[in-house]
Description:
Helix 2 runs antiparallel to helix 6, helix 4 (46-58) packs parallel to helix 5 and helix 7 (121-132) packs parallel to helix 8. Helices cover 41% and strands 19% of the residues. It is built from 9 helices and 7 strands. The protein is globular, with a radius of gyration of 17 Å. By secondary structure, it is α/β, with parallel strands linked by helices.
Amino acid sequence: MANQLGLPAGLSEYIRESSLREDGVLRRLRETTSELPAGSALQVMPEEGQLLTLLAGLTPARRILEIGTYTGYSTLCLARALAPGGRLVTCDITDRWPRIGAEYWTEAGVDGKIDLRIGDAVDTLGALVTDEGPGTFDFVFIDADKQRYPDYYESALTLVGDHGLIVVDNTLFFGKVVDPDAQDPDTTAIRAFNTLVRDDPRVEMSLIPMADGMTLIRKKPEQRHSSTP
Length: 229
């Protein structure tokens, strides 16, 4: 769980005390995840989860796609935002970590709304395009293999509807994006992805300094009547 970048600890704590409404189910899932190897670094901040719920609810979302489940904290946040009768498809490379979250999804009463797909995300996304068609999702959250973000992004643009929203996590990558000595593959990939989205004439976008960096993306009006990006 990346901290809120760029804020003094005292101010971050004040924001948490003044705005966070994390309930017991989410808190216990977060605490369970933090006990896993690298768990604290891999899960979303609770404030970010709360923002995801708000954004998805504003869409409003009947169909949500999540790329990267991990232990399902963000999955639970997004499932709670679904419009009545809605469905969330979440995909991960293994069921090892989502199994941890599944009991919390059940406790929260949203397990019946969640469709977990296990396998290579690129294959899963391709199958969704084939089986369900372009423009069938209202909200997409990307938080998976950083080096494959461009692939996930292109699939998301195909799958998201005309007025849908794409949210991409970790686009400041622990602040390493501005460190010239950070040349590891993930940091390099995030820098390249940020440039790709900034220069993409098909979309409107904003990288906001929330948590570890969140980029909000939607199709430009002239793109919204096309079934493919």
